[in-house]
Amino acid sequence: MRRKIIGVALSAVPSALYFLGALLSAHCFPARAQPPAKSPRIGYLTSALDRVNPNRDAFRQGLRDLGWIEGQNIVIEYRYAEGKNERLADLAADLVRLKVDLIVTTGGTATNAAKQATRLIPIVFTQVGAPDKQGFVANLARPGGNITGLSNVSEEVSGKRLELLKQTLPKISRVAVLWDSATGRHSSKATEEAARLLGIQLHILEATGRNDFDKAFAAATKGRAAAIIVLSSGIFHTHREALVSLSAKNRLPAMYDHKDYAEAGGLMSYGPDVPAMFRRAATYVDKILKGTKPADLPVEQPIKFELVINLKTAKQIGVTIPPNVLARADKVIE
User: Fold this and answer.
1) Do 147 and 193 reside in the same domain of the chain?
2) Which single residue of 29, 119, 162, 180 has CA 20 to 30 Å from 111?
3) Whether 191 and 313 share a structural domain
C-alpha cells in the first residue's frame, strides 16, 4: 500500500514541474504573449541643404511636447534634396515605398512632389504660399483631400515687403524681383499689384537654381534696379549666403522673406516666425496620427510677422535706415 502511494506521488511530479515552468515562463516573458505596438513612421521631405537647422529642431520639439519622442514611439524618415529640386520626386516616391503613415513637407516644390507621389498618404505642408491657388487644397477652411498644413501667406505680405522697402528708400522707382518659377506665379503677381499702387516699376527675374543667381543680379544691375526683393523659395533659402553675398557685391539693397537672410548678412527681412510654424506643424501630425482626416483640418496662417534689419549691412552698402522704419523692427542686427 505504501509503495502504491509513493508511486502515484512520484508520477505526478513531471506534470507539476511542467505546470510550474509554464507559469514562470509566462511571468518572465510577457512580451511573447503581448507584442509592443508598432511606432508610427513619418516622412520629412525638403529641398534644404542643411541637415541640422532650427526649423527641423522646432518640429521635433513640437512633437516632444505632444508626447512623440523620436526613436521611442515615433520614427522619422528624413529626405533632403540638398538644393536640387529635381531629386524631390524620387525622394517622395521613396517615402511612399516605405509606406510611411504621413509626410511632412517644406515649401511648395516639395509639397508638389509629395502630391504627385500619393493621393492616399496624409501630407502636412509648411512654408507654402497660397496653397489653394497652387492646387494643394480646395480652400483654406476645408482642404478636402489628403493635404493640409501651414501657409506662410507669402502672397498677402508681398505688398508689405515692397512698402517697407519704399519707406526705407523713398526715392526708388525701379526694383528687381527674384522669383523661383517652381513656386508658382502667384507671389510675383501680388508684388506687381503692390508696385502699381506704390508707383514702382518692377524688373522680374527668374531663377530656378544656384547657377541662375549671377545672371539674375547682372540683369538687375543692367536694368538699373535700385533694390531687389527675393521672393519665397526653398532653393533661395538653401543658398541664402550666396544671395546675400551677391547683394553686397552689387551694393543692391535687398528685402527677403525670412530672418535667416538678415542674420546671414542681408539688409532686411519681413515674414512669419518660421520655427513657430514648424512647432505648430507637429500638432497637425499629432491629430492625424490620432485619426483626424487632413480634409477636416483647416490650413493655418501665421498671425505674427517679424521685421529684421541688419544695420551692419546697411552701413557697408551705404544705406541709411529711417528712424520710423527702425522703430518698427522686431530685431536689429548691429
Assistant:
1) no
2) 162
3) yes
Whether 164 and 136 have beta carbons less than 8 Å apart is answered as no
Count of helix runs (H) and strand runs (E) in the chain: 14, 12
The DSSP bridge partners found for residue 310 are 333
Residue showing cell 522673406: 257
Coil vs helix vs strand at 270: strand
pLDDT tens-digit map of 18-70: 444 444 444 444 444 444 568 999 999 998 766 667 889 999 999 999 999 99
Are 190 and 283 within one domain? Answer: no
pLDDT digits (tens, 9 = 90+) for 261-311: 999 999 999 999 888 999 999 999 999 999 999 999 999 998 889 999 999
The CATH number of residue 117's host domain is 3.40.50.2300
Q: Are 279 and 136 in contact (CB under 8 A)?
A: no
Q: Cell 523620436 appears where?
A: 70
Which residues make Cβ contacts (< 8 Å) with residue 199, sequence separation at least 6? 173
CB 190 within 8 A of CB 158: yes
- Domain match, 316 and 288 both: no
**C-alpha dihedral, 302 to 305 to 306 to 307, nearest 10°:** 140
- Residues 258 and 269 sit within 8 Å (Cβ to Cβ): yes
CA nearest 184: which of 144, 152, 145, 148?
A: 152
Query: Are residues 266 and 327 both part of a single domain?
Result: yes
CB environment 136-150: b (16+ within 10 A), e (fewer)? bbeebeebebbbbbb
Give the distance, in angstroms, between the CA of residue 59 and the centroid of all CA atoms in the same chain: 9
197 & 317 share domain:
yes
Report the DSSP pairing between strands 305-310 and 268-272.
antiparallel
What residue numbers bound the domain in which 124 lies?
41-152+274-296
Do 278 and 141 have their domain in common?
A: yes
**DSSP conformation letters of 174-243:** EEEEEE-GGG-SHHHHHHHHHHHHHT-EEEEEE-SSGGGHHHHHHHHHHTT-SEEEE---HHHHHTHHHH
